[in-house]
Design goal:
single chain, 247 residues, alpha/beta, 5-stranded mixed sheet, globular
Length: 247
């Protein structure tokens, strides 16, 4: 199995299309298809903040659910949008407001269709993918070695939000531990969630959220080749959104 794991898209549809083209995908009937039958894997957070969240939902739903050409795992933004579409009380901020505005501009018929597509996408996808053929685990914010195979509430919180301490940073973001430093598994964990300027390799993990929506670039990690492919972002750079870990 050859896979192309794609970092947090956040509604940056043009960059996603550029990335597919750079990786050798061909567009057939509006969908990217690789001549060598590679499988795209979306790392969650496909919506919010960027300019084309609704179109991104449509594309990912068609690839994953309708045509079975790709895989997907949810991220924390996906989880919040899911609750929004379910009618649960959520605060429209931290990017959800952009997706909500796009959604409300649609006709009632299109609203119903997009809502159904997104709920179906999340409902029919696992919390994280274990892909033994690629020697990889794909999880939005990562996963501890000892938790692989589990899906309880504690693991779900970790996979969606990272190793949060419960404390807040001065800018209001949650404080997170650097869990990758303690990972000792022999399978790759490919994750995103925390924007970094360059793909961050620590032990057998790689963070490929390179902050496309914050003006840096969109990244894919190709397996089993272990090759990184990136395309530049068209968005303005927001430096304070990036984490500078010590490796």
């Amino acid at each position: 199995m050859k896979i192309d794991v794609i970092g947090d898209v956040h509604g940056c549809l043009d960059e996603l299309k550029d990335l597919f083209m750079k990786m050798g995908y061909e567009w057939k009937e509006g969908l990217p298809v690789h001549p060598q039958k590679r499988t795209p894997v979306f790392l969650g957070d496909i919506t919010d903040r960027g300019p084309a969240s609704i179109e991104t939902i449509r594309l990912v739903h068609k690839l994953v659910i309708q045509e079975k050409l790709a895989l997907y795992v949810p991220g924390n933004h996906c989880n919040k949008l899911y609750r929004f579409f379910k009618g649960n009380p959520v605060q429209e901020k931290h990017g959800l407001e952009t997706t909500a505005a796009e959604y409300r501009s649609l006709s009632p018929r299109e609203q119903k269709r997009v809502k159904h597509q997104f709920l179906e996408l999340v409902d029919q996808s696992p919390l994280y993918w274990e892909l033994p053929e690629a020697n990889a685990v794909i999880a939005h914010a990562g996963i501890r070695h000892e938790d692989i195979g589990l899906t309880n509430k504690r693991v779900k919180t970790f996979v969606l939000y990272g190793d949060i301490t419960g404390a807040k940073l001065p800018d209001g973001r949650p404080e997170r531990r650097d869990w990758a430093q303690h990972y000792r598994g022999d399978r790759w964990v490919v994750y995103g969630h925390t924007p970094v300027y360059e793909p961050r390799f620590v032990n057998q993990t790689v963070n490929i959220d390179t902050g496309c929506v914050f003006g840096n670039k969109l990244t894919a990690f190709r397996m089993p080749e272990e090759v990184v492919v990136t395309v530049p972002s068209s968005m303005p750079l927001v430096e304070e959104k990036f984490n500078t870990f010590s490796s």
